Amino acid sequence: MGLAAIYLRLSRNEEHLDIDEILTNHRNALIKLSKQQKLTYDIYQEISSGVNTERPQLNLLLSRLDDYDALLVMDIDRISRDNAHAEEIKKMLILHDIKILTPQGAIDLSQESNEMLFSFQAMMANFEYKQIRKRLGRGRLAAAEQGKWTMSNRIPLGYKKNEDKRLEIVEDEAKIIRHIFQKTLERVSANEIAKQLDMLGWRSRQGKVLTSSHISQIRKNPVYYGVIQACRRVNGRVVDEVFVENAHSGIVSKQTFLEVQKMLEENSQDKFFHKLKATRRLQNLIYCNCCGRKRYLQCDGNGVEFIKSCSYKIDNNVCQDRGHKYLSIEKFVLQKVKERKTDFEQALKKLKSLDTTDVEKKLAIQRESLNKQLEKLNKRQRNLKEMRMDGEITKNDFYEMRDENEEQIRQVQQQIELIDIQLENLSNTDEEQQRLEDTIRTLDKLDELESEPCNTFLKTFIKKIWFSSNTEANHDTTRERKAATIKIEWL
Ligand SMILES: [Zn+2]
Question: How far is the CA of 306 from the centre of ligand 1 (A)?
């Protein structure tokens, strides 16, 4: 049996969460891990405050490295935020042949590939905001589980947050939400509902006009029938999800909400409303650089395509940005898009240089051995039943051994799940490589692409194209035209 050092560190930055509770959770997780690994342990823990970089407990631990076989931490970044320091500690750990264990897996520094992993993770940990978000994520998820509103400060229209951090209906706003759901059930389009709300003078909390896109978001949001949902992502992948019904009073009933979802689903399949197809390459991508509204495309009587002049009117503010011939704009944008090719090629090269085969191999071996463990445990479970049936063990012994065995099965299954997640994360870079390769290939034959697939392709990396003709629309056609503005906002 080996001896482990458990190192726990929390920073004061996390104080709006219950720091004692987090510390207890972390400690329990690591004690559990040491038991799984059949290690006895010493605990070192400290709470650091922002600027203070002194870590007396860590230093004490490092001075006793001779005593230990393993170091148990929650995240690798708990050891040190500072790259040079991390590097120094790493050398000390290698010298003393100490393994690092985290609930996410083991890191054996004597193996080169792991050394790479350690450096890589320590580097990642330096992106402090990422880690803070991750930790916040855990606390946020726990609060969401209790039905509390834990998302950004933007509380959904129709609600306010009470002292208990739960959502409470604001009747004045709730009537807007009810109207939106009711009218949707009557098959009124989002556009039409927006007009009605505007006429009623019903605005957002900031006094702004509610647009059809607001309305589309509102009627898909389950918060309105009493749901709190939250998720935690690691590397963009959802690793934990919370969905609590009856967390607060709904503004609409669950039935109404579900009916509306069904209707919207049918709507998206073109059964109820006519949906415009992309007939031009830049369809739905051009926005007014003066007022921010979408710009529309049109064909004139001679078959020449135009960006229509902007005539957005709200209260006394009128945008009158003049129209422009469309094709020259399209040509300009496509040229800019082609120039992005080198960017994509560089990104691809960078991805390819991140070789993950070693890590992959190691994970596969771990998985294999866990599978064997699982087989063994399942067999033991069957044997226990037989022994009990044959009267070889007492009922109490049976229950005790069975529970213990089941607990072990559960733990092994969890470890297997974790490895599967890690493996999948690795293969995500494969997908990203594939995506970049496809993009580069498509760029090469961009001119041959039909309007619609081209439009879809452009939307995968262009967010908006900001356009202005920089001329006011009026009937004087003799004026000299100024150069147009075209800015591409990349995703
Ligand atoms: Zn405009």
Answer: 15
